[in-house]
Automatic annotation (TrEMBL):
GO terms for molecular function: ABC-type maltose transporter activity. The chain crosses the membrane at residues 12-33, 78-98, 110-129, 141-160, 242-267. GO terms for biological process: maltodextrin transmembrane transport. Belongs to the binding-protein-dependent transport system permease family. MalFG subfamily. Keywords: Cell membrane, Membrane, Sugar transport, Transmembrane, Transmembrane helix, Transport. Gene3D superfamilies: MetI-like. It is found in: Cell membrane. This is Inner membrane ABC transporter permease protein YcjP. It is a multi-pass membrane protein. It comes from Clostridium oryzae. The keyword Aminoacyl-tRNA synthetase does not apply.
Length: 282
């Protein structure tokens, strides 16, 4: 009886703590949403109200149709989708090679990946700039895609390699006996069995391209080529009606977060298993 009471009390405390954490996490989002539908140009108020007295959606309409926001949205989509596809293509083939084949420099290559992962991209920004300038890729979305893909490939290769290690080799050996080629085994056996890990890889690659700010702000110069993070920053810097319009900025911030949330909801069933199984073997 006492053990049951302790268990109930323990579960109650855990649920209370989790509810408090959820409230703390959700409150900033609700605050920004409240600001985005507020007619007053302010982020703070003397009264605590999640819904303003006179809510309006005019700020969403204004930022979507009265400025270059849709152009920035298209640019971000191009960068993030291209980064995702390149990471999947290059990462899956590289990870499969590291997982299944034994060749000279294999361990060295994996260790180099780990060493490179220890340094943030900001340390290489000067080198990136000079390389892109040499190849005439400054102020070009292709240059940003290449940089984002290269920085994200380290996680991609290690995560997928760990997942491929958990796939039994006997399955491929049986397929080889039946006459399957290496490409057929990879495309028809390995990739379908690795959907959770591919979902995790796609999610992180998409976020890397979608949320990139420092590199995009450094390498993109023309406003028509800005991505959404840089575009939102420019709204507060330009001497225009956007400069101090916090409700408009809040509306844009929420719109930017929607695609990432949608991708997460679509892939959430695969995220946990993809991350855990991808880290079982190294």
């Amino acid at each position: 009886m006492k053990s049951n009471k302790k268990e109930v009390l323990k579960n109650f405390v855990i649920h209370v703590v989790l509810i408090i954490c959820c409230i703390i996490s959700i409150f900033p989002i609700l605050w920004i949403f409240s600001s985005s539908i507020n007619t007053n140009n302010s982020l703070v108020s003397t009264t605590i109200r999640l819904i303003p007295e006179k809510p309006t959606l005019m700020h969403y309409k204004s930022i979507l149709f009265n400025g270059p926001f849709l152009t920035w949205l298209t640019n971000s989509s191009i960068v993030s989708i291209s980064t995702t596809l390149l990471c999947l293509v290059l990462g899956t083939t590289s990870a499969y090679a590291y997982s299944r084949f034994r060749f000279m420099g294999r361990n060295l290559g994996l260790n180099v990946f780990l060493i490179l992962n220890a340094f943030p991209n900001i340390l290489s920004i000067v080198a990136y700039y000079k390389i892109l300038k040499i190849f005439n890729l400054l102020d070009n979305q292709l240059g940003l895609v290449i940089i984002c893909t290269g920085s994200q490939l380290i996680f991609t290769v290690w995560n997928l390699k760990g997942y491929f290690d958990t796939v039994p080799v006997e399955i491929e050996e049986a397929a080889k006996i039946d006459g399957a080629t290496m490409l057929q085994m990879f495309c028809r056996i390995i990739l379908p069995l690795s959907k959770p890990a591919l979902a995790v890889t796609a999610m992180f690659a998409f976020m890397a391209g979608w949320n990139e700010y420092v590199l995009a702000m450094t390498f993109l110069i023309t406003p028509e080529k800005f991505t959404l993070p840089v575009g939102l920053w420019s709204l507060q810097q330009n001497s225009s009606s956007y400069a101090t319009n916090w409700p408009l900025f809040s509306a844009g911030s929420l719109i930017v977060a929607v695609p990432v949330a949608v991708v997460f909801l679509l892939l959430q069933k695969s995220l946990v298993s993809g991350l855990t199984l991808g880290g079982v073997k190294g």
